[in-house]
């Protein structure tokens, strides 16, 4: 905006009237315009990042779903073993909960759903102990039930889980020498590319499996049975981790897609606001310039 400061002085000695004008530019809307421009630039940068992350997640999703289909065979084979042998959970079982999570975020409610389900299970069974796979679930559960966590594993979810990783986890759990009737593995099951639910996969101890109703159908030696216990736990953890990883990738793709769409909407709104503010500045300056041209004539006419 143009601030017009009129200084009038009459030179009495010469009898000539002198009128001087000082024009100063005051950017009333400049601060607002710069702020909008700065925010617009930040949102555009964020939109580029989320769009790139969506592309990366879309590429990974295909590989993770293929790996999930292959890993499901391992998990279902042991579930069928327990079903055909009619293995049942004993009364008041001592249960260990294995929570499948990862170290990465920006994937919607993947980790929070798992931790909510775990907290509900601990409310029903306060003596239950927890093994956490992944830092995200560990951070959330440590706020509410830190005493129930007996073991945790990090560096989970960086890539598609391998069977060797699950085998190492199962080996560490069995090395703890803690006795459990059942081990409940809590993980996310992929229902579609946009939906998933937390569920439980149960692995039974060697003693509970021996007490199964139809155990005689299988001719299993004692040394084989002990190896079957570790292999059953490892395959169940492996299948659960791979499916949880597929859910995480799918959820991250959807989250980044929504974030990109929201960023584009914000860019449109800020662009309109930016153009409006710029138009106000241009219009105001034009008005001040036009007004400034007539001020000398008005000033002279008033004095004369």
Automatic annotation (TrEMBL):
Pfam families: ATP-synt. The keyword Transmembrane applies. Its main location: mitochondrion. GO terms for cellular component: mitochondrial inner membrane; proton-transporting ATP synthase complex. Keywords: ATP synthesis, CF(1), Hydrogen ion transport, Ion transport, Membrane, Mitochondrion, Mitochondrion inner membrane, Transmembrane, Transmembrane helix, Transport. It is found in: Mitochondrion inner membrane. The chain crosses the membrane at residues 280-303. It is a peripheral membrane protein. The keyword Ion transport applies. Coiled coil: none annotated. InterPro entries: ATP_synth_F1_ATPase_gsu, ATP_synth_F1_gsu. GO terms for molecular function: proton-transporting ATP synthase activity, rotational mechanism; proton-transporting ATPase activity, rotational mechanism. Belongs to the ATPase gamma chain family. F-type ATPases have 2 components, CF(1) - the catalytic core - and CF(0) - the membrane proton channel. CF(1) and CF(0) have multiple subunits. This is ATP synthase subunit gamma. It comes from Pneumocystis jirovecii (strain RU7) (Human pneumocystis pneumonia agent).
């Amino acid at each position: 905006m143009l601030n017009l400061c009129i200084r009038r002085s009459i030179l009495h000695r010469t009898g000539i009237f002198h009128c001087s004008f000082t024009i100063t530019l005051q950017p009333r809307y400049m601060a607002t315009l710069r702020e909008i421009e700065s925010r617009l630039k930040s949102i555009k940068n964020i939109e580029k990042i989320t769009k790139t992350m969506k592309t990366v997640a879309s590429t990974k999703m295909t590989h993770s779903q293929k790996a999930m289909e292959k890993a499901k065979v391992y998990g279902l084979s042991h579930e069928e073993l327990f079903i055909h042998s009619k293995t049942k959970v004993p009364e008041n079982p001592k249960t260990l909960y294995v929570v499948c999570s990862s170290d990465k975020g920006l994937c919607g409610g993947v980790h929070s759903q798992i931790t909510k389900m775990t907290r509900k299970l601990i409310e029903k069974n306060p003596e239950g102990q927890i093994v956490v796979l992944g830092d995200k679930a560990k951070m959330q559960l440590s706020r509410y039930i830190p005493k129930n966590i007996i073991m945790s594993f990090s560096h989970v979810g960086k890539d598609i889980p391998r069977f060797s990783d699950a085998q190492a986890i199962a080996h560490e759990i069995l090395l703890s020498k803690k006795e459990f009737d059942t081990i409940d593995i809590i993980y996310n099951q992929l229902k579609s590319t946009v939906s998933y639910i937390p569920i439980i996969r149960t692995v039974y101890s060697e003693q509970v499996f021996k007490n199964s109703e139809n155990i005689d159908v299988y001719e299993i030696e004692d040394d084989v049975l002990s190896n079957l216990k570790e292999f059953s736990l490892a395959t169940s953890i492996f299948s659960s981790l791979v499916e949880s990883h597929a859910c995480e990738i799918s959820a991250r793709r959807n989250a980044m897609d929504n974030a990109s769409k929201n960023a584009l909407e914000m860019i449109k709104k800020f662009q309109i606001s930016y153009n409006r503010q710029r138009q106000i500045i241009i219009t105001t300056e034009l008005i001040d310039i036009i007004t400034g041209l007539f001020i000398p004539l008005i000033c002279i006419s008033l004095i004369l």
